[in-house]
Design a protein that fits this description.
- By secondary structure, the chain is mainly alpha-helical.
- The protein has one domain.
- 71% of the residues lie in helices and 0% in strands.
- The longest helix has 16 residues.
- The protein is globular and about 25 Å long.
């Protein structure tokens, strides 16, 4: 994933988590890894 795409996916993941979406669903929706999502919090 390119750097710009990665940044956008992380922004989307933050919004989804803020809305209460489960981590596994965010992984599937964004393509990020569980570790990458953990680092967003």
């Amino acid at each position: 994933m390119k750097e710009g795409e990665m940044k956008k996916q992380k922004e989307i993941a933050k919004k989804l988590l803020a809305k209460g979406m489960e981590v596994q669903d965010v992984i599937e929706a964004t393509g990020l890894t569980k570790e990458e999502i953990k680092n967003l919090k």
